[in-house]
Amino acid sequence: MDDPFLELSAATARYTHGAPRAFSFGDDGRLLWFLRSTGPTDACDGLWALDTTTGAETLLADPRALSTQGSTGPGELPLAERRLRERTRLVAAGIGSFALSGDGRRAAFALRGRLYEVAYPDAGDAGDAGGPREVPAAGPAWDPRPNADGSRTAYVADDALYVTPGGRVSPDDGARWGVAEFVAAEELGRSRGHWWSPDGVTLLAARVDESALRRRWFTDPEHPELPAEDFAYPEAGGPNADVALWVLRPDGGRVRLDWDAAAHPYVSDAGWESAEEILLTVQDRLQREVLLLGADPVTGRTRELSRTTHPLWVDPLPGTPGRLPDGRMLTAADTPGGTARALAVDGRLLTGDGLQVRRVAGFHRDRLLIEAGGQDPAGQRVLLIDPATGEVTPVADGPGVHSVQASAGVLLLTSADADGIRRTVRAPDGRECTPGDLSEPLPYRVVPVLERVTEHGLPTALVLPRGHVPGTRLPVLVDGYGGPCAQDVSAEPRRWQHRQWWADQGFAVVTVDNRGTAHVSPAHTHAVHGGFSRVVLDDQVAALRALGARHRDLDLTRVGIRGWSFGGYLSALAVLRRPDVFHAAAAGAAPTDFRHYDTAYTERYLGLPRERPEAYARDSLIADAPGLRRPLLLITGLADDNVHPSHTLRLSRALTDAGRPHRLLALPGVTHMTPGGTREKVMTQELAFFRAELRR
């Protein structure tokens, strides 16, 4: 690459290697377990625990010491785990995840298909002194989860659910057991498929039947000697996986949880509330109705505890729906007019227009612990809310983005702003300690110019070259995502590092959170119902012109646009439909026709294809191909199982058939995440493209 910034970015996985992650409290808040590598260029994460009473850290599992093959590369992972890592956007090698026993003093993890258990050194078992021990498994194991006291561990191998000690507990019926199907992990926020009962004896397990789904195939053109790989994909308008929840008893007995799965096929959450009750959250296909159900594990019968509805779709709010300690129901709600995302208790609004609630993190000191935005959507606060009165008490509310985890009165607070990312463990008595961060310091201190523009109050950001001389005209590079469920304009500092690099190449970098994006207001988010293309593109154009009027150094006669995934769709859309505004585009992993994207995401916004064919036709880019008259660089990873490369290839074929010149960059073996420094290598080609096409 021959660029120091890009080389360092690639080597450090965008400044994340060496940073602690995947935090989980155990032993009533005394232990904070986490994953971390040994430094900024080490991709191999080990398992650590921090004693919150002393601040001392202990390395409990070093993947290199456990390796007998001398490699920690992702290619050695079981296929199912590799796909789950893609769903959860996990790029680190080594130990990808772990799960704690109910007492929080033991952990289980998988390493390249091998199963391990480890206890904190003072857990009291004489056999634990030697560190992690390998546990025999029936096959390449993944997603291991210990029971309450760590005496048994459930895991998945070859799509079957096993327990050790013991054996296979799921029937051999052709279905996948103990796993999350594609839409649950990619779109609904559920990445697991089995749960221990509180007594550590009985399992709740998901049964996933994908036999009705279409298959998608990949071949690696670099290795024609290898067979093709296929997987089941739920395409918009087509069948979904048939998902059921079963209680698996140790005596071999099984009970299926009974709810109207035809009306509410999506299971977005599940787990044991007590030995006598299971809670599950289910949704209808268009996600306009979210039910919290209580289930009897003996009979399988369910009863409705709460119902959340919306005429367009219910926007997910992590931590809801749920039950408060006094038995009342906590649900998400919108304030009148869609001004704010709010909380409701038994249907009564608890919060008002002044808060945009983003997550319920649990209970702390008998009050709800939440993360919320305010008037400035770029920031986020941590607050306590009295569930009886709605009284708000700040926990972390200075400038920046603050988030929290809690257990037994202990808080882990993470604060991010232009000066970096800081993590603090705060005990009930006020003592504090800090998990060690061995990551590379961020190269740039970036303070983007944040403004709200147009009659819609769109959040925007402008990053100029360091040392920019006012009066110097700059070509503009629009760099963003623009799609639902995401927010670009945020005070979180890592997202501005690469935009500063682009600015330093001589561009004014503009980012716009058009309507449809997250965390501004429900009305802002719901504006894309029934169609993406018009609202998203109109807002980008209006915001760009408003910024050009305010900042005269922006040369709107030279505007490029780049993006990945929905951002790639937006980029191609921009040059195809508004060539008067956008003069060149680099479109990566673009879903060019949403009829071929997944059910849960697409139907939430566009409806069912058979009922709204005009919406799908309007948002497809294929018919626009003959009108291309601006330079377009199409980029796709040929191993992308999220936005299949066929999306890009179909558009390229349509452009070729129409005689429209364009460029195509196809990346063998590259997935949607573009790991291993691929994104930085692509950036060098994008830079050459924009320099040539925008004449700078």
Throw out a few tags for this protein:
Rossmann fold, Methanol Dehydrogenase, Chain A, alpha+beta, 34% strand, 3 domains, globular, 696 residues, 8-stranded mixed β-sheet, 43 strands, Methylamine Dehydrogenase, Chain H
How are the secondary structure elements laid out?
Blueprint: H1 4-11, E1 21-26, E2 31-36, E3 44-51, E4 57-61, H2 63-66, H3 79-87, E5 93-94, E6 99-100, E7 106-111, E8 114-119, E9 133-135, E10 141-146, E11 153-157, E12 160-164, E13 176-177, H4 182-188, E14 194-196, E15 203-209, E16 214-218, E17 229-233, E18 242-248, E19 254-256, E20 266-274, E21 277-283, E22 289-295, E23 302-309, E24 322-323, E25 329-334, E26 341-345, E27 348-349, E28 356-364, E29 367-373, E30 381-385, E31 392-396, E32 401-407, E33 410-417, E34 420-426, E35 432-433, E36 449-453, E37 458-463, E38 474-479, H5 497-504, E39 508-512, H6 522-526, H7 533-550, E40 554-564, H8 566-577, E41 584-588, H9 599-606, H10 613-619, E42 632-637, H11 646-657, E43 663-667, H12 678-693
